[in-house]
Amino acid sequence: MVTAQLNRLPKEYRQMTSNEKMARIQKTKAHFGSDLLIPGHHYQREDVIQFADFTGDSLQLAQMCEQNTASFIVFCGVHFMAETADMLTTSSQRVMLPDLQAGCSMADMASISQTNRAWEELTDLFGDTILPLTYVNSTAAIKAFCGRHGGACVTSSNAAQMIQWALTQKERLLFLPDQHLGRNTAAKLGISLREMAVWDPISHRLELEEGTSPDHIRVILWKGHCSVHEKFTVGQIQELREKEPQTQVIVHPECPYDVVQAADEAGSTHHIIETIKAAPPGTSWAVGTEMNLVKRLALTHSDKRIVSLNENMCPCLTMNRIDLEHLTWTLDLLREGEYQYEIKVKEEVAVEARLALERMLTHV
Fold it and tell me: pTM of the full predicted structure?
């Protein structure tokens, strides 16, 4: 739940120079010292990430917030990440998001009303044989749903372990909200595509491979996706192979199944970062993930050639809602004692959502 209405950015912040905005941010950081924490997601813009106290993926950032005693956390990421940070910190700590419109299209593809209806229809079909798992890229309400029904959260790093665990608990699992991560991970574990089905929350229909019986289904994939990672295609890989056969392709498992199969390697954001870090100087890489991170990798590892797999790729639009203007504005208001865009999850939701997070941390 958000405790503030959406306000319009004052014109003065658009008129400031970059140096003026950066000076104001530094002034606020100096004013609050260790009582202010600014976590920054890997996909953030370079001009914003420079002010982050630490960087990481969504769960890493939330866990770092949990371990910190700062009174004020200005989260440079998207809405579901700030929710998780709020759930893992104390009631005396305040979590704010610089722009309330910094959401996640994937997380928005699974609403709690859709999920409750799907659960009723799927349990009518399959009985008490399903355990829900949700990618951490989901709302607090969906995490709470999984916690309530004995399920857990997963990250792109531990999805394989969590799917294996889930299938020791129940005969089937429902994987929310990213079908591609679920499909790619299950396939890597040896589960055939014919043992997977897609639940379409719009048509309320289970999509099966031709000739497949529902009785054979082990993994039910929610029909959701990341709008950034769906922009990578097999055609891009084929074109790259023809032009630059020496270039290795590494992609995120949020990419479609055929793209992951065609790539040289696939893995989480952390895996991509570490793989390129460890690669020999002079090697060439095409990376299938968010553009801000690809550009940062290229700058950090200038001894290697690093490009986006999709040369026409744009940065994540919602992640890029966090800019210098909104960060400056939020911090200026904070100095005046105003907690704009504070993210606060209702405690009854947070309790069940934390169960899903705790189950994940227990089994990885």
Answer: 0.93
